[in-house]
Design a protein that fits this description.
Layout (H helix, E strand, L loop, with lengths): L2 H13 L3 H16 L2 H5 L2 E3 L17 E8 L2 E5 L5 E3 L5 E3 L12 E5 L2 E2 L5 E2 L5 H7 L9 E5 L20 E3 L4 E2 L1
Parallel strand pairs: 1-2, 1-6, 6-9, 9-10
Antiparallel strand pairs: 2-3, 4-5, 7-8, 10-11
Length: 178
């Protein structure tokens, strides 16, 4: 199955979630996230704002969260101290101009449309996360890359390409894939 077909199928499945089901599954995802040792000790977290029925990662008071802004080179990450505005895709982006250097982020929580057991993801197809995360692959103590999604988004297809950045972990409502 092509990435285009995978994307279409799993977006349709995610769009079918009721508000109640999304809230229930999101709470299970967040519980699984909060149990991860690395998350407990992490200070700077790159997160995201839920879009089109995505789960919304939790925000704990003892951490600093940074949210993505789309740029030509990929993504930059900023605090939410000045609020959010919608970008051209209808996704909330932080208004804050000052960004954090990517290598100062402990964990990247990455949204996805689908993933496979090899921990590769399908996103919306513009490659923003892959371009951004690939900048960190060569550093010795690279941040963790964790996918955040519903368990039903698991695909049996091996769809990865040479440009795809593998996740270190995928956290779903049912389990943590490593």
């Amino acid at each position: 199955m092509s990435k285009l077909k995978i994307r279409k199928y799993f977006i349709e499945q995610r769009d079918k979630l009721s508000t109640e089901k999304r809230i229930l599954l999101t709470s299970k995802i967040n519980r699984n996230l909060e149990l991860q040792k690395e998350y407990i000790v992490a200070k700077n977290i790159a997160s995201f704002r839920a879009f089109r029925n995505e789960p919304q990662p939790t925000q704990l008071i003892n951490k600093i969260y940074h949210y993505p802004k789309i740029s030509k080179a990929g993504l930059t990450f900023h605090t939410d101290s000045k609020g959010f505005k919608l970008n051209k895709y209808g996704i909330e982006e932080p208004i804050e101009k000052q960004s954090i250097p990517l290598n100062e982020i402990d964990i990247f929580l990455v949204p996805l449309i689908s993933f496979n057991k090899n921990l590769h993801r399908v996103g919306f197809g513009n490659g923003y996360y892959d371009k951004t995360l690939s900048q960190l692959l060569g550093i010795a103590d690279k941040p963790k890359f964790w996918g955040i999604c519903y368990d039903f988004q698991l695909s049996e297809t091996n769809f990865e390409t040479e440009f795809d950045v593998r996740l270190d972990r995928v956290i779903s409502d049912k389990k943590v894939y490593v």
